[in-house]
Amino acid sequence: MKRLTIVFLFAITAMTLHAQRAPIRSFYQKYKGMENTENIQLSGWVLKLAATFSQEEEAGNLLRHISRLRVLTMDDGNIVPRSEFNQLLKQVRKDKFEDLMHIREDGEDVQILIREDKDRITDVLLLVHGKDSFTMLSLEGALRFKDLKDLKIDVEGGDQFQRLPEKRTTTPRA
Asked: Crossing angle, helix 22-31 and helix 82-94, to 10 degrees?
């Protein structure tokens, strides 16, 4: 009976973790194969290998804390309707993501959302919705808030991480 209870608890935990990232995964799956869309998905040993070969010690240390990276970009026209963008935001907020930063600038809507577990950030989601472009960056791992400022990712909106304050306070809006 004890063994059955333990197996049941592991199964429930696995299903919960799997379901929590479902909105991001399904959005990514829907758009990754469309025309004028580029996508990258890295996980596990590939990220660990990148950390080993990183020229910068800071970048290597940061990569060690990331377990999955997804990037989806559309440069030659944004095919994500505003309604689907808003639906994605609604779904991830329902899955305990919090707004960290929201910037409207030059016709673009840039949002950074995070999900935390105690003192660790387990998920980071960067969304850039513009008139002619769209970018989604999703990170999974075990990061600290100060690690976010060190993220130097060459995607549209990636420079917004450097705008974050040193310490977590309230949600910056611009």
From this structure: 150
